[in-house]
Request: fold
Amino acid sequence: MDLTYTAEQDAFRAEARGWLEANVPGVPLPSFDTAEGFALHRQWERRLHDARWSAVSWPEQYGGRGADYLTWLIFEEEYFRAGAPGRVNQNGIFLLGPTIIEVGTEAQKQRFLPTMASSEIVWAQAWSEPNAGSDLAAIRSTARLDGDAWVLNGQKIWASRAVWSDWCFGIFRTDPQSQRHRGLTFFLLPLDLPGITVRPIAQLDGDTGFAEIFFDDVRIPLDSNLGEVGKGWNVAMATAGFERGVSLRSPARFSTAADRLIELWRSHADPADDSLRDAVSDAWMQAEGYRLHTYQTVTGMIEGRAVGSEASLNKIFWSEMDVRIHEIALDILGARRRADGRTDGALGRRLPVLPGRADLRRHQRDPAQHHRRPRPATAQGGVTVRFSFTDDQRAFSDGLHDLLTGEFPCARLREMWEAGEGHSPELWARLAEMGMLAMLVPESAGGMGATFTDSVLLFQQLGRAAVPGPVIEHMVAAPLLAGTPLASGVADGTTVATACLDGDPFVAHADVADVVVTPTGWRTGFTAERVDGIDGGRHLCIVSGGTVEALTAPEDAADLGDWLAVAAAACLIGLGETMIDIAGDYARQREQFGKPIGSFQAVKHLMADALLKVEFAKAPTYRAAWSLATHQPSAPRDASMAKALAGEAAYRASRASMQVHGGIGYTWEADLQLFMKKAWALQRAYGDSRTHRRRVADAVLGPRPG
Reply:
């Protein structure tokens, strides 16, 4: 994992920044949902194209620069930083264009892509129908063969940009006997053909960003289909994948909006208003989390991994985040906000039109582009920002997963809880044998010399299995004891270490530990009095007496709290994953009204929301581990962000899983309780979510007054 840029990427950024600063209009263009604004935005698109900035990730022969996905993200950051105009041809360049590159014929690529890149032809999206919006498979518009032409009939609605666009793309039912996803074909056609009527739909602000399109015996050539006849659903889903994934909403949009929200807060808000301060900080965290998640997704795409459910998760996440950022802006503006739903340029964008459910919300304008097929790194220097793990790191994680699955099932964990045991000597010996307990210990002191980045996936696996005992504490504390008389024993696991922060009233696992490490020293010969706690695998103790000695390198222990917080965050992610898995298994087996409860939409949405939280906590946690391993200045902020998001994700997963289980979830016999209780305990360990959120807010907004 390496989250730094190459010299070539920095040079690309400088080139993009220089061009944008010299060319972005000094006065914002009128809305492209008006005739004047549409024309001016088309001119801007041609200017971008002439400088080869309109579609940087497209192949060069079609008007792009052949850039990789990460280079595209850099361009997007600079584009939004410069406050450049919205992309009027986004339906073409960012949705249809990548689809043509992926599934189109060479003739279609040559015909459509160059004029799309230059915006000589601007495209409208014509998918939804009056009774087929979110349920796109309910399409009723038809296309029938008639000699040398297809004849189209029907109606489309919510057609973005259709009032002013030149062409549209949409799906029509070509097999009248088919139902749902079958028998649909994806067509490309001009909007000025005989039989087409475009009727504008006025938005709340009076502009016409959408339209209805009526097709009355419209004749188009036989080669107007994109993809195979009858396979239009597959093509449409490819296009939707670009829309929902990293394509339609680049992270730069939200990072820029969050930064402007902070500026707005500093200019207009009462700094003593803690609720508003927390809301602004949360918006920044959400935007930053989305940025990190996108970098992780893009790295996977470059490495050849397909984009699966991440696309839908992205769509839900950015839809809700988009609305939330603007809601907070309106709260800050208070009486200064305008009645027409605008923020007077405070965030550089108009507010969303329909702040309803994510799966019903109309899409908003924005630049972005990507192709889902992996492409090699560019010849100019290649990919350096790598938000991914190596094969060795994944293999070690998989090996630990296999060990825990095979030798430490829930039945064994339950036995330990019932016996009052918070530590498994057998498992401890196996982990020591793997070298895991000494992963972070320098090789010179008998360890593996690994970094915190190497360990974060292992912490996640420990959480997935709800492993009891001081494993994460020992791993984090062990390198701090290098150079002490305890070093060799700690490295081979014969000396058990735990860790805590100065001032903590309780020390986890002190009843089985030989040494307690704090940021200021290490204690041996102590007495540990166990107190009752919610997690049977995490014994809390009051420690007294013993001998305290200074660490040989106390400066290395300054970040102990952050290391523990990130290790706990990774465990919480693993716990969240397992709770979701347990709930999913139960929902597939438990029946109500003659069908599995998992088939009910309410249950699906409940679990999808929990999964969303867990998935979007991963990238910030992995980034925090890298920040600590490479001593980034932002490491304290990153660690707190990780702990806050992971704790909240695990809590959401526990609540959702409990709701799916119903009454059985409250019983001792349910395995779910083993993971819920550990999640609840770890969420509060090493700083709860509120503490870490305030720490992030202080880093982003400045210290709280007073």
In short: The first helix runs from residue 7 to 23.
